[in-house]
C-alpha cells in the first residue's frame, strides 16, 4: 500500500511538454538493443543433443518434401537422397551445408544509421506481419488498406524501439493481389528509412523485390550485405511448397537474407508435445537452410521458429501458453547450437482488443523472446487476434514494452557510482534519497518511465476521465500520425523507383493470370 | 495469420460443462508448484560478492536503527556494537546468526494437505496484502469491508493455484481497528483451510495471533512447525520501528515464521540505482534476520524483497519496470547466497482497472518472480493501483496466469514418448496430428488452456457480446462466490475460537487507548 507524493500534481504538465518535444522530433533516433545479460539456457547440453538426434532421425528416416523440381535436383546434386518429392538427409551432409551459413550479418537500411546487425548479442525488433485486418478504438475491426499499411510503416519509423520496417505489416486488401507487393515495397522505402523485407508471394515478386533493392542500394552493394530479409515459411509438417522454393532460389542467388521458419501449432501441424514439436521444427529449419547454402554458400539465413499451441478442445490457436514459452527457449538454444541467428517470439495474443488478456499474453511471449536472446523478432508490435489483426493502439503499447526491454537487456551497473555509497552517508535512517547529490546526478535517466502507463493517483485519473490503457494509446496513435514527417529520399532514386514500378504494373496487367 | 477450426462451434458448450463440474467441486485441490527448470542467475559469483561486500560496509559503517530498547539490548548482548538507536554489525557476527536460520521449513495449514514447504525449489503463491480498497466492474472502487475480506479468502481457497490464504488480503475498514485482527484471523480459519499469516499491527495483536494458532493447532505442535507466517516490514532506509520489533519478539519467542522485508521504492527510500538499492535491501534484511536468530536460534525466516522504483518526475511508484526486474533477480540471488528462503515479486501494477497496462505490468514482474525461483510470493493475485486496491476480476485473472506458471515450472519432458516418433511416422508431409494415437494419448492434458482468455473467432466473440477480459472475469467471480462451500471445521475448535475472540474483544473494549 503506497501513499502518493505531492509532486504528482505537475505530472500532466510535464507529460504535455515532453509530448510536444517528441512530436517536434518526428522520428526518434533508433535505439539498438544488445543483450548484455546471461542467456536463459533451458536445456542442458545433453538435452540439446537429444533434440538434435531426434531431428536427425526425422531427416534421415522420414525426410522432407520439396515441391519444386529444380530444388530437388539441387539437393540431389549436393548429395541428398531424393525419392519422389521427398528428400532424405544424413547428418554429415546436413551439418556441412548448415555450417556454411554466417553466424552474423548486417542488413542494409536506406539510412545507414539504421543498418541492423543480425546475430550474436544483437536483437532486432520488427512490426507484426501478414494481418488482413486492422483494429482501433474509433473504427473497430476492418479490412486493411494501403493507407493502413503506410500508417503502420510510419508508426514503426517513429518508434526508437522498432529497428526494422518489416514486410507485409498489414495486407493492403484494396490493391490488386498481382501488384500489391510493389505498393508495399514502395511504401517501406518512401515512408521509412529503416530496413525492410522482400516479397514471398511468388518467385517473380521476389525478383521484383531484388530489382527494387538494386535501384535503391546498388546491385553490387547488396551482394556484399543484403538489403532484403524475406520470410520463408515451411508448410509444416515436413513440406516446402513451390512458391516458397521459387523465392528461396531467387533470394539465395541474389545473396539476400532469408528467415527459414517452420510454422507449427503443436497439436495440429506438430505432435501434441513440446519435445516432438521442437525436434520437427529443428529438422525443417535445418533442411531449408541447407538448401539455401547449396544454392549459394554463405547466403545469410536466420533459423526461424514460429511455434505455438492449439486449444485441443476447439482447435483454436493459443499464444503465451507455458508450452510455447518452453518451445521458444529450446528452439533458440538449437539455433545457437548450430551457430545460426535466431528468429522467434513476438507480442502474441488471441485477444480481439488490447485488453488485459492482450497484455498478459504478449508479455508471456515477449519476455522469453528476449531472455532467449532472439536475434530477429518479427511481430514485436501490433499483433492481435492470432495475427489476423494489426491493432493501432496495440502497436504503440507494445512499443512501450520494447522500450522497457531495451533497458532490461543492458544489464546491471555494478560500478562504485551505482552502489551510491555517498548517498547512504547523506541519508539518515528513515530519510529519503530524493535530494541527494547521487539522485541529482542520475534522476534524468535512472528509471524507465512508460509514457502510456498511468501512474496518476486514482483521484487524478478520475479527473482525467478515467481513461483505460486502450483510450490513452488511441490518443498517442493520433498524436504520432499527425506529427509524422517523411524521411528525405534522393530524387533520382525516387524517380527510378517510380519508373520501375510503373513499368512492372503495365507488364503485370497483360501477363496471363497463372504467371 | 491463422484460419479458425470448425471445431470451435462446440467450445461454448464444453466450457459450460466444465464450469459446472468446477463449481460442483467448490474448492479444487491445491496444486503445489516446484521449480524444475534452471534458475535465472543474473549476476556472476563476483557480482554477488560485490553486493555482499557493499552491504557489509553499510552494516559496519552506517548501521541500522532499532527503535526498541529490549531489541537493542539483545543485539548488544549478542555482540553487536550499539550506539544510541543505531546498531553496527561486523560481517562475522552477522553471518554467524544468519547461518542459524533454516534454509527450508513447513508451515502448517488447518487442512494438512495444504501444508506448505517454504524454501528449496518450492514456490508458494499467496494473495495480495494490505489493500484499503477493493474494485470490481459492478461497484467500482470503494473502501474494503470484512465482507470483502471474506470474499477474497473464499476466492483464494477455491483456486488450485493459490497455496496460502495470506494475511490482510484487504483492510476490513468497517471493523474497529483495535479488534480487526481477530476478525481477520477468524475469517481465514473459517472460510479456508489453507495456511495464513499473523497480525503485525502490535505486539499484543501478534500475541493474539499466537494464542489463536495454539487453539487451532496446539501449543506444542506450532513450536515444531510454524502455523503463522508474518510480514515484518523494514521502514527503509535502515530502520526497524517499535511496532515491528514488538512483533518480531513475540513471533521469534513462539518460533513462528517471519518474512523480513525491506520496503524500498528506489529513488525515494533507496538510492537512484539498482546496485545501491539491492545492497541496502540486503543489509536491512540480514540485520532483521540476525535479530530473530539471536532471540530464538532456528526461528524460520524468509529473506524478503519488496523493491520497485519511482517515477523520478512525479514521485509516483512504478511497477514492472526493467530496473525492478533486475533488482528482483539480484535480491533472490542474494537470499540463495545465504541459504535463505526468498520472498519477492507478485502481479504488481499501477493501473486502476484490469486493463492492458495491468496485464503487461503484472507479467513483467511475475515471470522474473518465477524464474528467480521465489519461494514465497505475496501479492500473487488481486493487486491493482500500487497495492491500494484489491481487484476482484484482477484476482481471478492473475490466478489464470498462476496456473500457466505451474505448468511452465514443471520443465520439459524429454522422454521417448514426448518425442512422439510414432506420430511422425503416422503423419505424411502436410498432414495433421489431430487424429494420431499420440495425440489421443495426450490431448486431455497436453497444453494449458486458460478458461478466462478468449480463443473464439472474432465472429463468435461478437455474437457473445464482445466481452473484454474484465467482463469475462466479472462473470467468473460471481460464479465462484455463488458456488462457494466452506471447508469443515471441528466444532470444539470453532467453539474455543469463538470464546477466545469474545473474551479478547471484551478486554480490548476496556483497555486504555495507547495500550
From TrEMBL, chains A, B:
Keywords (alphabetical) are:
Methyltransferase, Transferase
Entry keyword annotation includes Methyltransferase = yes
**What Gene Ontology molecular-function terms does this entry list?**
methyltransferase activity
Q: Record's Pfam families?
A: MTTB
InterPro entries annotated for this entry?
Answer: MttB-like_sf (IPR038601), MTTB_MeTrfase (IPR010426)
Which family is this protein grouped under?
Belongs to the trimethylamine methyltransferase family.
Q: What is this protein called?
A: Methyltransferase
